[in-house]
Amino acid sequence: MIPASITPKTSPLKASTLVPLILFLGLALVPVYAQVFDDRFMMLFATRIAVLAIAVVSLDFILGFAGLVSFGHAAFIGIGAYAIGILSEHDIWEAWISFPVALAAGGLFALITGAISMKTRGVYFIMITLAFGQMAYFTATSLSAYGGDDGLTMWGRTEFFGTNLFANDISFFYLVVGCLAASYLLLRIFTGSRFGRVLAGAKQSELRVEALGISPYRYRLVAYCISGMVAALAGALMANQAEFVSPSAMSWHRSGELIVMCLLGGLGSLHGALLGTIAYLALEEVLSGTTEHWRLIFGPLLVLVVLYGKGGLIGLVTRRPGK
Amino acid sequence: MSFTLLAVQTLNGLQLGILLFLIAAGLTLVFGVMDFINLAHGVQYMLGAYLAVAAFQFTGGFWSALPLALLAALACGLLLEVLVFRRLYDRDHLDQVLATFGVIIFLNELVKVVWGAAPLSVPLPLYLDWSVPLTDTLSYPVYRIALIVAGLLVAVLLYGLVTRTRIGMLVRAGASDAEMVAALGVNIRRLFMLVFGFGAMLAGFAGILAAPIFSVEPGMGDNLLILAFVVIVIGGIGSIRGAFVSALIIGLVDTLGRSFATDIARLALPPSAANDVGPALASMLIYILMAVVLFVRPSGLFPVSSK
């Protein structure tokens, strides 16, 4: 039995199964649409969304759920991407080697920086994670053997037991969506477990959790590492998608964008993050197609979402039947 | 690494520090007193610079443009406060981040629409358009020295205002416990608006001062915003003194780091590696500094709030 405080307050349990089901079904049907209408752009666009959504969901896990605002999350994406890029530079293309390396690198970075960052609270935590993100960014710009500022072009994609599963548009898309679904489910299982309840409890009141004899520090650190590894997975897929790795994937702009996508969708439900990513990228794409100065519309839209759409887009979707 | 180079770079570092202080002062007050994270504060700096350009084109002189641009910057700040920010004070920090991020996107684009994407500039003001000779071959522009002096004057003024006047007392009280100040019968909304407008004007002032020496372009406030956040976090949120000290530290560390990091890296590394590591290390320096400060003192150098 899941206590009421674990499920998002405004959404009945039904909506929290229905919304992700619809979103994933929609994603899974994109290749069908692309085949019928011969729309390769849609295919690539959906891939881009799904890859980024993995990172945004992983951010929501620590931000929305555990209340840890990481402003350096793009660093994990970059580390995952660079792991793939650097290994490919040394002619290692096998996914069974490169993906575990990417995940381990992301997890290790999260362990070290998280252990230090969690000494601080609130805004100071935001800023110290920014600091580590910037350090990772500038380290990447100094890797002149691997492209430095200009980035690293990969001459192909990761192989899967020697097959080129990654090279085909459709199979790569389903691989990405599969990773997204797996990450989503895994994190959702975590949020429902005892582990997740400690995190959510510590977000509400650290004192009370401590009074129960539990130190939230280790739980938070583990959550941070899991989140970092999932974001590194997104990075590893992103490197394959673009066949290019560059420091700009780690810039603070990107970290900020990830937070904005999370907030736009609505915090703490994981599928809100997915919805936020889709909405952000789709809005950007549609608006930038209509006018050169689309940001004049996009900016105020974000303000309006905050002022009138409490709880992000997911709040708008799930509140309707109830109230 | 000669003495004159060191002197010039120290002056440049002080100059960056002063600009950062002018931006960070408003940011730290708004944050400390109202508990409001205003990402759009960097945009105020950009607006100041653009308003200086516009006012210069209107009046034809820097000295007559200065008060005009300053008033316009204040008006812009108050307009934003009334239209958007006022509604955000009671909200979550993250709501504030999202909304003010939207404001940044909007204003960066608006500036592009009104003034174009190409960088603009303002000529050096009359009486300050000459240089002080340092050596036979090297001279330093007097405007940059004037900028440092102007910033120091503002710092002294601000310090007096905050520590010696009734308004300043309320601001300090607000920074340590805003609710209690309101309970004691102070009109906290009006105090908030005052602090906000003043902070916006200071950031605008920094932009006006920067207009003659940096290129005025869309997005010019974004990177300075991050630096200003580094400054207020190191200094301790809500502390003007902390903002001043850490702004100068950040300005000097960043500027001197950029000019000497490669040379220093050469002492320990082979030249080719040093050429790679130097610039990256220089850019990282302030972030390393921030991480160390926060690790040792989790609430900054001069903590204010008792919360």
From TrEMBL, chain A:
Question: Is this entry keyworded Nucleus?
Answer: no
Note the topology in the membrane. Multi-pass membrane protein
Pfam families associated with the record:
BPD_transp_2 (PF02653)
Q: Where in the cell is it found?
A: Cell membrane
Q: What is its main location?
A: membrane
Q: Give a Gene Ontology cellular component term annotated to this protein.
A: plasma membrane
The UniProt transmembrane annotation reads 68-87, 93-116, 123-146, 166-187, 258-283, 295-317
Which superkingdom, per the lineage? Bacteria
Q: Which GO terms describe its molecular function?
A: branched-chain amino acid transmembrane transporter activity
Keyword terms: Cell membrane, Membrane, Transmembrane, Transmembrane helix
Q: Which PANTHER family match?
A: ABC TRANSPORTER ATP-BINDING PROTEIN (PTHR30482:SF17), HIGH-AFFINITY BRANCHED-CHAIN AMINO ACID TRANSPORT SYSTEM PERMEASE (PTHR30482)
Q: What is this protein called?
A: Branched-chain amino acid ABC transporter permease
Tell me the organism.
Roseibium limicola
From TrEMBL, chain B:
**What InterPro entries does the entry give?**
ABC_transp_permease, BCAA_transport_permease
Q: Where in the cell is it found?
A: Cell membrane
Report whether Transport shows up as a keyword of the record.
Answer: yes
Where it mainly occurs, coarsely classed, is membrane
State the annotated membrane topology for this chain: Multi-pass membrane protein
Q: Name one GO biological process term.
A: amino acid transport
Query: What are the protein's UniProt keywords?
Result: Amino-acid transport, Cell membrane, Membrane, Transmembrane, Transmembrane helix, Transport
Source taxon at top rank: Bacteria
Q: One cellular component GO annotation, for this chain's record?
A: plasma membrane
Q: Where are the transmembrane segments?
A: 12-33, 45-62, 68-85, 97-122, 142-162, 191-214, 226-256, 277-296
> In the record, what terms sit under GO molecular function?
transmembrane transporter activity
- Family assignment? Belongs to the binding-protein-dependent transport system permease family. LivHM subfamily.
Q: Which PANTHER family match?
A: ABC TRANSPORTER ATP-BINDING PROTEIN, BRANCHED-CHAIN AMINO ACID TRANSPORT SYSTEM PERMEASE PROTEIN LIVH
This chain belongs to which protein, by name?
Answer: Branched-chain amino acid ABC transporter permease
The root-end lineage is: Bacteria, Pseudomonadati, Pseudomonadota, Alphaproteobacteria, Hyphomicrobiales
